[in-house]
Amino acid sequence: MITATNHSRAWLAGIRLTIVYILLLALAVFMMGPFLWLLSVSLMPGKNVFANPPAILPTFIDFDNYVKVWQFMNFPKYIYNTVVITVMGVIFNVLLASLTAYPLATFRFKGRNLVFTILIATMIIPSSTAMIVHYLTIQWLHLGGSFLAVVLPSSVSVFNIFLMRQTFLGIPPDVRDSGKMDGASEFRIWWQLVLPLVKPAIAVISLLEMMAFWNNFLWPIVVLDDPQKYPLAAALTFLNGQFSYNFGWIAAGTMISVLPIIIVFLFTQRYYMEGIAGAVKG
Amino acid sequence: MKRWAWSESYTAWAFMAPGLILIAVFVFWPIIYGIPLSFTDYSVISETHYIGFDNFVKAFHDKNFLISLWNSLLYVIIVPIIQIISILMAILVNGKIPGVKIFRTAYYIPVVTSMVAVALIWSWLLSSNGVVNYLLLQLGLISDQVAWLSTSSTALFVLMFITMWKGLGYYMMLYLAGLQGIPSDLFEAARVDGASRWRVIWSITVPLLRPHILFCTLISLMGAIRVFDEVYILTKGGPGTSTLTSSVYIFQKGLEQFNFGYASALGLIVSILIGALSVLVFRFNQKGGVNPY
To answer: For the whole model, what pTM was predicted?
Structure first.
């Protein structure tokens, strides 16, 4: 009798597990299917995008679209633009956030609470016209058309400052004291003793900012006068209008723009997820 | 001792100066400057005048603005749907079964890809002879091809669908982080007491996830009202004004027609609306809107 119950229980658990896997797979097809389909389209030159039934998996593989899009659309140029903008954005964000957060976490000085309160306030007040004022500011600074203009408005974020402050708070004060004992300046203590201890937080900020800058398309279009200076995401909207009937090329171009970010994400998920989860606590 | 404290505060400001200056210029200034700008007719064409409340009066008589406001409010429908689906997804991927991490990653891929790429893929999938129509026709759910994004009655809902599709993984991960913070003996105790699976979700999971629900609701609410990228890339507000959202309209007025004064006034109205809605969500959450007891 007991074995019978165990038997049916195991059987039930098996069914339940099967259902869970079916659900997981169905969702995976829903979320990944569109990307796999785009990959197939990009790998099958000459095949109609609107062919029915749709091909989720390619029936043959040919990199012709990739070769053509690379040659005809000046892709190396756009990749160069994207990399420069992204690298600048990441460096600015890491340096400025850790510089600004460090005294807020470890120093005692007048006005610390005031700075902190003001920073929090900016996170609560919504601004729907920021882009317009940014545009006016960039014009006023005579920066229009430069990569610096693309990067500056998002070069420091209050969220990153809070994240860094939280991390600095977890570092024992002995680190700073021992540095002082050795006669090191505050700046050297920060650069040589403290920053190496917060590498995980730096990694989180770098990843989040890298994705934000890589995927940003609107602000570059607004602020850059010449499409030759566009990063990939902006160039794609531009090219889409120019080559609207060459689906294979556009599919290949889109894959080229998307793959680096997906690959980076796959290898750095752990850090990335920590940053995302930290957002709720912060 | 006093001298030391002074030098510490001097160093502190030196450290913070670059960051604070940029925050002042690019975070603070837009919030402040947007207000006086709303009371002017600042544009690139003519001289700037102070015009009192004219922009606001004009806004409430501007049919397109009112439509855009309505469309943005309609977009909020996705907020509760996102919470329900992403909580269920989080529960699904919370199990300790082999391979579950691969599925989490797969669901997250749309979040990290650019909206430009996502919009392009879906515009092809959703075109009249695209894959979606093919599948729906095969299943017998529709009898004729539908041009999803160029039909007034469907376009806005299709955009909502794309917004959700891209965002679900993000909210799933936030809820997953919340679920993993709930001690598992709570679930076991409930199961031993004979509570059904749904009963456990409703009486234990949801109440304990409340801070996460608040956070995700606020984020997705602001995202919904300010929705821009997918609308701008795919429909630019059309056909007609059927998908015109307030952010797209403000962008058109401000950075395409360069009516900075009027666009700022519209932005201020939307900001106030978002502020009011956020307060409402807070109150609802405090009063226990999601409390099942």
So the answer is: 0.89
